[in-house]
Specification:
heterotrimer; A mainly alpha (about 350); B alpha/beta (about 375); C mainly alpha (about 290); A: about 350 residues; ABC transporter involved in vitamin B12 uptake, BtuC; two-stranded antiparallel sheet; C: about 290 residues; mainly alpha; two-stranded antiparallel ribbon; 12 helices; globular
């Protein structure tokens, strides 16, 4: 199921045809507009806690979209995602502490750093077929964390690097409100970038590579080059996510980036649904909200206090279980479930009634 | 249509307002309950939970119950910040506690400052802002104190050792531990002793033998380690296995008491500010009973830190009166003196300028093979924190 | 001399854990990224059997080994078997998720405190004096011996054993092997059993030597470069790879910078990927030109 491109994939021509019904399009734009409206109104009506949660979801979406590009579309596993996030965060930390660099310098620098790391770790491993990139990314993670820790020790930051919020026209941006919109904009931009990439020649090449590498090669696609390209772009985007992460938390420290973070991103794309951009966002939402859901669920049990100590472990276990469940039973992920539901409902409406003329 | 409905549902779901202010004192804690630091901080949280269960059972403070909300941050700064945000905005806590790794401090301090709610560190490293002149809003009950720990330890070594001591130093690559060991190394030389070697161990090390090899090769008569207990004890055992039979002194973490009993090595010393349960103080019996009653998963003798912190919280809330808010609690904390009933040698005292404590006193313990129990090797290493 | 002893011990740790990686990769082309957690599971199971068979170390160890092997088979039957039709990507992702699940379960069942399985069994790690003034602890010595025996047994089994031959066949060409009448599911189950068993033994010995923390699984990741350097489908390669990685790590602690020791295995790995990606003894893979 991971090999064949799903016919409902919006980015294939078959998918495009499916969406071309006029009423379909109108319905789609209406709900898209409503979603946009909802997202914009939300910070005015929601609690600060929910606001922060939503911001976290947007930030996670950037990372999961980039991983989806790499793994879901180009078919390469990476378990060093946390290393790239850390790299982006450290670029911001180092540049803003050493040279007081403003954000419009640090963010692009983070992207460049990510791209360089992607190239450095991608070249050795992407020449090969198979899982060598996964291994390389693991090395990337450990090396970045080590380098970051060394920098912190060298500079004497016992508890991590503190970063000031970015300043625009002299005003510091640090309120939850402002960050909600910034992160929302960043997520939307990333989504648009990904959509464009997938529509381009590069995107089609990735699809071909993911489906059947040998056939792709026979078609004349330079496998290694496109795989490397996927990794470099994905790494650049992820590093920018890391940079935003640093600004959001005003803080960078080696301990903030565990291997578990990498695994969470992998889970996001599994749960969301491989090969689907909306799936990446759904997956990011699910994984970000999941621990809070578990906490509430346990809070409803009698004598909940006693379980607080085991919460982390329960989170872990539940998380692993859910990911496995999706892998086994719902390989198309949340987006697959969504499309199935959609299908059920739209089919019901379209069921031909023999005596009432052609279907609407 | 479906999409529309779902969007509306999502928006409505999030518009639920925060929980209404209740008739209780709300205290919120973010702790590294799980993850690599669990064995340090989980007993602290457990102690606080048991403590306030008892306080509430006895009628609460000023007649009102205390709601202590404990959230796990897995020693991750991001999660700690999210926890604190939740505690402040959702639960309306008037006092915050951070019992987690020092990497969680920056974001938590930032949040607490923005909301103007006092922040107490229990069991975690005391940030330098609590030492005089203290930063408004940060307090610490944790036993260990940077620089003073090493001073006391080196004084002890100098006093106990017949010949001039040759000291080996060991710490973890975590900046806090590293800084302390660097300080100790320099201080030792200033005090007229010789520093023969210094080893820094990455926390994820599987096998301590290579580091122990280097230390043993330098032939120290004393080794001083200031790091997490796991690192201290593993290094000690590795050195013993290599045939080294010198004296080893490390910080008395919560696990120290049980480990001294397990290892039964008369040349293993631990230095700390908390009384070990070996002293059989009445309050320690109280803790043991409470832990047994609550069927706690953690041994009572690891709950000193949490209990001491909780005692300070209770006193502060008592003094703040009712109705209480964050500002009143802050006022109360800045003028607090609580008798520790023997768990600490001096009463815990906070003033406007000193949020660490006015007096810090150390005791050294080791195993006495003849008596078959832990004994006090030295006490009364007192320092006034100015 | 002590340095050589240390290198031998560390390489045995890595080798014993890595032979699990190699077995599974060779037979099914899957990277089992849950090996670290499975190894930790073995150590925790020993903790349980130790308190059950108080004072009877042989029974406790044997029971723990049997239990771990059963767990390995269960992992295959309940999870990996269902992944056999899917792409390798899915299977690896499944092992990652499994690792998470196991970690959570282990902390739930046994708590995150540091434990000493050797205590209830009355087993203490003492030192043995070796020529040249070096010393080695009893369990470290046991590790070295067990590692050597395991590799010898595996070599023999794969080369001469009936099922060993079948395993190699399944690894080389599953389709042909199946058509030849080899029960692939049984082979895979056997592979997982062996891999978990060797990993569990490593975990148990490490725990007996220096205690058991909930962070033991990270060792599984550090051992991974050893397998890769030697060649992910070569047992001999893994043995030599472990020696190289362990030597690099210990020498860097002694002469360069102790802080580097954590990253050293991965630096070696990276170097290997650039120079000879399929490892010293692995099957040569086709290189695409970038």
């Amino acid at each position: 199921m991971y090999d064949a491109p799903s016919p409902a994939n919006r980015y294939s021509s078959a998918g495009m045809l499916q969406a071309s019904g006029r009423s379909d399009q109108r319905r789609r734009s209406l709900s898209a507009a409503l979603l946009a409206l909802g997202l914009i109104i939300f910070p005015f009506v929601g609690s600060p806690f929910a606001l922060d949660l939503a911001s976290q979801v947007f930030l996670a979406s950037i990372g999961s979209l980039s991983l989806m590009l790499l793994t879901g579309f180009a078919g390469q596993i990476s378990i060093g995602h946390a290393g790239l996030i850390a790299a982006g965060a450290y670029v911001v930390g180092i540049m803003s502490r050493e040279w007081q660099a403003p954000f419009w310098l640090t963010l692009p620098s983070a992207a460049i750093a990510g791209a360089l790391l992607g190239a450095a770790f991608g070249v050795p491993s992407l020449r090969l077929r198979g899982l060598y990139l996964a291994v390389s990314t693991l090395a990337l993670y450990f090396i970045v964390i080590y380098a970051g820790g060394e920098y912190e020790a060298w500079r004497g930051y016992a508890t991590g690097i503190m970063i000031d919020s970015p300043k625009v026209a002299g005003m510091e941006i640090s309120s939850g409100f402002a960050w909600y919109f910034i992160l929302l904009a960043a997520a939307v931009m990333t989504l648009v970038l990904c959509i464009n990439l997938l529509r381009s020649r590069t995107g089609r090449a990735w699809g071909a590579i993911r489906t059947r590498e040998t056939v792709a090669e026979a078609l004349g696609i330079n496998i290694a080059k496109f795989k490397l390209w996927a990794f470099v772009i994905s790494s650049a985007i992820t590093a920018v996510a890391g940079a935003l992460f640093a600004y959001d938390r005003n803080f960078v420290s080696a301990e903030a980036f565990s291997l578990y973070l990498s695994i969470q991103y992998v889970a996001m794309i599994i749960i969301g649904g491989m090969g689907s951009l909306p799936g990446a966002i759904l997956g990011a939402t699910f994984v970000t909200l999941f621990p809070y859901a578990i906490e509430s669920a346990i809070g409803m049990l009698p004598d909940a206090d006693r379980y607080v100590n085991a919460l982390y472990a329960m989170n872990y276990a539940a998380f692993g279980l859910v990911t496995i469940a999706f892998l086994l039973f719902e390989p198309r992920g949340l987006i697959g479930i969504w499309r199935r539901l959609q299908g059920h409902i739209s089919l019901r409406r379209r069921k031909a009634k023999p005596l009432s003329g052609p279907p609407q | 249509m479906l999409r529309l409905l779902l969007t509306v549902a999502l928006v409505v779901a999030f518009v639920r307002s925060a929980s209404a202010a209740e008739d209780t004192y709300v205290v919120g804690m973010t702790a590294g309950l799980t993850g690599p630091t669990a064995s340090t901080f989980a007993p602290v949280a457990e102690a606080m939970r048991i403590y306030f269960d008892r306080v509430n059972a006895a009628g609460g403070i000023n007649g009102k119950p205390v709601k202590s909300i404990i959230l796990d941050d897995q020693a991750e700064p991001q999660k700690a910040a999210a926890n604190v945000k939740q505690l402040l905005t959702w639960n309306n806590a008037i006092l915050l506690i951070d019992s987690s790794l020092s990497s969680t401090f920056a974001p938590v301090i930032g949040e607490a400052r923005r909301a103007d709610v006092p922040l107490l560190f229990i069991g975690s490293v005391c940030p330098k802002e609590v030492y005089p002149p203290a930063d408004r809003g940060q307090y610490c009950t944790t036993a260990f104190a940077s620089n003073f720990d090493s001073r006391a330890t080196l004084t002890f070594i100098k006093g106990t050792s017949q010949d001039p001591a040759q000291i080996g130093f060991a710490g973890a690559t975590i900046p806090v531990s590293r800084a302390e060991i660097d300080f100790a190394e320099k201080l030792a030389t200033d005090m007229g002793m010789t520093a023969v070697d210094k080893e820094l161990v990455p926390p994820t090390t599987a096998d301590f033998t290579p580091f122990a090899t280097k230390l043993v090769a330098a032939k120290p008569t004393w080794v001083y380690a200031w790091a997490a207990w796991v690192i201290q004890v593993q290094l000690f055992q590795a050195m013993r296995r290599l045939g080294w039979d010198g004296n080893f002194i490390g910080w008395a973490h919560q696990e120290a008491e049980d480990e001294l009993k397990r290892l039964k090595d008369p040349h293993l010393y631990v230095i700390g500010a908390n009384a070990l349960f070996q002293e059989h103080l009445p309050i320690q019996k109280q803790i043991e009973d409470a832990a047994a009653e609550a069927s706690s998963r953690y041994p009572a003798d690891q709950m000193s830190e949490g209990w001491i912190g909780s005692m300070m919280i209770e006193a502060a809330l008592q003094q703040a009166g009712w109705p209480a808010n964050a500002a009143k609690v802050e006022e109360s904390l800045q003028n607090l003196k609580v008798d520790m009933k023997g768990m600490r040698a001096a009463p815990m005292e906070w003033t406007r300028a000193n949020h660490f404590r006015v007096h810090q006193s150390y005791r050294v313990y080791n195993w006495d093979a003849a008596k078959g129990e832990i004994v006090t090797a030295k006490e009364g290493l007192d320092y006034e924190i100015k | 001399m002590q340095l050589i002893v240390n290198m031998l011990v560390l390489s045995s740790i890595y080798a014993l854990i890595s032979c699990g990686y190699v077995l599974i990769y060779r037979v099914s082309r899957v990277m089992n990224l849950a090996q670290g957690e499975l190894m930790m599971l073995g150590a925790y199971l020993l903790l349980t059997t130790a308190s059950l068979f108080h004072g009877n170390p042989e029974m406790a160890i044997i029971a723990a080994v049997v239990l771990s092997t059963t767990c390995g088979v269960l992992v295959y039957v309940l999870l990996m078997r269902k992944m056999t039709g899917e792409s390798v990507l899915a299977a690896v992702l499944a092992t990652i998720a499994l690792g998470i699940l196991l970690r959570g379960l282990m902390v739930l069942i046994w708590s995150a405190q540091q434990q000493y399985p050797g205590q209830p069994l009355g087993l203490n790690s003492t030192a043995i004096a070796l020529p040249g003034g070096a010393r080695i602890s009893t369990f470290a010595a046991a590790l070295v011996i067990v590692n050597a025996l395991t590799y010898a047994a595996l070599f023999g089994f794969l080369r001469f054993g009936r099922w060993g031959l079948r395993m190699r066949a399944a690894g080389q060409n599953p389709l042909l092997a199946a058509q030849r009448g080899i029960n692939l599911h049984a082979i895979y189950a056997l592979t997982w059993a062996l891999s978990t068993m060797t990993g569990a033994m490593a975990g148990m010995l490490i725990a007996l030597d220096s205690g058991l923390t909930s962070n033991l699984a990270v060792l599984g990741l550090k051992a991974f470069p050893a397998a890769l350097v030697g060649g992910l489908d070569s047992l001999l390669g893994t043995l030599i790879g472990s020696l190289i990685v362990a030597a690099a790590e210990i020498l860097s602690i002694q002469y360069v910078d102790p802080l580097l020791s954590d990253v050293m295995p991965f630096l070696v790995l990276l170097a290997m990927l650039i120079v000879r990606p399929w490892g010293l003894f692995g099957t040569r893979e086709e290189l695409d030109r970038v």
